[in-house]
Amino acid sequence: MLEAKEVVKSFDGFRALDSATLTVPKGTVYGLVGPNGAGKSTIIRHFTGVYRPDSGKLLLEGAPIWENTDAKRRMVVIPDDWYYFPQASIAEMAKLYAGAYPSFSWERYEKMKQVFPLNDRQMLRRMSKGMQKQAAFWLTMCCMPEYLILDEPVDGLDPVMRRQVWSLLLGDVAERGTTVLVSSHNLGHTVDISTRILLLEHGELVADLDNREGAAREKLEVYFNMAAKPVSEKDNDGAVAAPNGEHAGNSQPDEQLAESPELEQPNGTEENLQAETEGVSASASETDPDATTKAGA
Asked: What phi and psi values does residue 267 have, to the nearest 5 degrees?
């Protein structure tokens, strides 16, 4: 089980995570979604021990993750920007992975050659982005991880390869009990494979949604559609309603909104508006003799 408890992280005064608390049970696929800047990549880098929290705890089955080599050997991450040695090939990177992960399977490495149509002797820097992402999955799946953490995992992959990758991943979940935490801006892919969906906003967990049979899809679509609307089309307080019916942002009571002078609507009648228009036209004609002619045109 992966746990984040009251995690706080700030960068130059900006609070990227604000008491973030979430749990990913063992043997499940959890999707992590949210708008840009919600804290998705930040919480992933905490779970993988890249970042140290300002406060709070990151735990793997009750043990702290930070500077815990044993915990890190049980998980593999594919970040949005996968790192590799520029001069290395897949075969050479495989030796590096095998040295870092005792569970690395050379037998599976050979089997993966049938899944990923790549030359494992070719330098990775000469491959396309999609081919590099395939290489990342090839090496990752050979590590036989207990925990798999993915950040924008299928970005750059064609539709056929995406299906093959998801099939491999879900096969490991079913057969080996692999725990998966996947973050993606592609809502459709995330909903398709996840048993639950975690929604982050402003560094906080605002919803934990059951996604059996895609149950979370409609709620998430409503949430993101509201987030995309102009402020005038949102709730009275300008905030976006979270899928659980609550506001994701700060709210203001309706009574205060009604009394707010900035929100008072003009109550002039049609006659008042016509009089004001005629007054403006008269003033214009006094200062500019051609104004009447221009207005008539």
From this structure: -115, 25
Assigned token pair, 267: 């109550």
Contacts of residue 6, defined as CB under 8 A and 6 or more positions apart, other chains included, come to 19, 20, 21, 55, 56, 57
Q: Say which residue the tokens 């949604």 belong to.
A: 209
For 265, phi then psi, to 5°, come to -95, 145
Tell me the pTM.
Answer: 0.73
Band of pLDDT at residue 239, cut at 50, 70 and 90: very low
User: CB neighbours (10 Å) of residue 236?
Assistant: 14
Contacts of 241 (CB under 8 A, 6+ apart): 222, 223, 226, 235, 247, 248
134 membership: H or E segment, kind and range? helix 129-142
Residues 6+ apart with CB under 8 A from 154: 133, 161, 162, 165, 166, 184, 186, 189
- Phi first, then psi, for residue 179 (nearest 5°) are -100, 130
Tell me how far apart the alpha carbons of residues 90 and 111 are, in angstroms, rounded to a whole number. Answer: 14
Q: Which residue has the higher pLDDT, 17 or 283?
A: 17
pLDDT digits (tens, 9 = 90+) for 126-160: 999 999 999 999 999 999 999 999 998 888 889 89
150 conformational bin, left if phi > 0, alpha if psi -120 to 50, beta if neither: beta
